[in-house]
Amino acid sequence: MDFRRAxxxxxxxHLLQEIAAxxxxxxxxxxFSGAEDVVLIDMAQRxxxxxxxxxxxxxxxHPETYAYLERVREHYGVAIELLMPQPQAVADLxxxxxxxxxxxxxxxxxxxxxxxxxxxxxxxxxxxWITGQRKDQSVTRTNILLEHEDRAFSTKEHPLLKxxxxxxxxxxxxxxxxxxxEVPYNELHDRGxxxxxxxxxxxxxxxxxxxxxxxxxxxxxxxxxxxxHSQNVVRILS
Length: 238
Known about the structure:
This protein is 34% helix and 9% strand.
């Protein structure tokens, strides 16, 4: 497919151009970690749009993910800001509960320290952020909008907008784009990792498993969110 001409693929590019026109470039950023996010980076680069890019370095990423971050930086010639947790908060959690408390207590506390707090610090400096979320990624993400106020991280004094340009795309759309445009991707994908997060909270999935089943696999499917996108989460009633 020629992604430069297919009308179904114009919407994300056009939305990125609209975002660039609406916001001070210093006050908007792409949140980068996976395949969807690098598609957005590629689209922005092809359109000549200079967005800031940040990624969460939890201290527990796979070695392949760190290598991937560097490969993307070099491939596009962009700076990637790594957001790291507060060392004392990590030390306190590990001292009190050990390295693997999430197996017993759920992943929320660890993610809160390693992901949510650093993200909150960053988002205080922005007016908008851009993510690669898709509606079909999980049963908890079926109501993702292209644009909305992010009430999870907004305050009365500082409203924050959130954009999800690929919300209507499928995994097949993402990978068709990656292959067609020769976009760099994390080599863990070639080993059965579909949705990639921290180590050891991510595993490879089988051919008939859902892509999010490899995240926090010991928990129910309705709990497979870390809080980064809590406003978008659909509450599942059992």
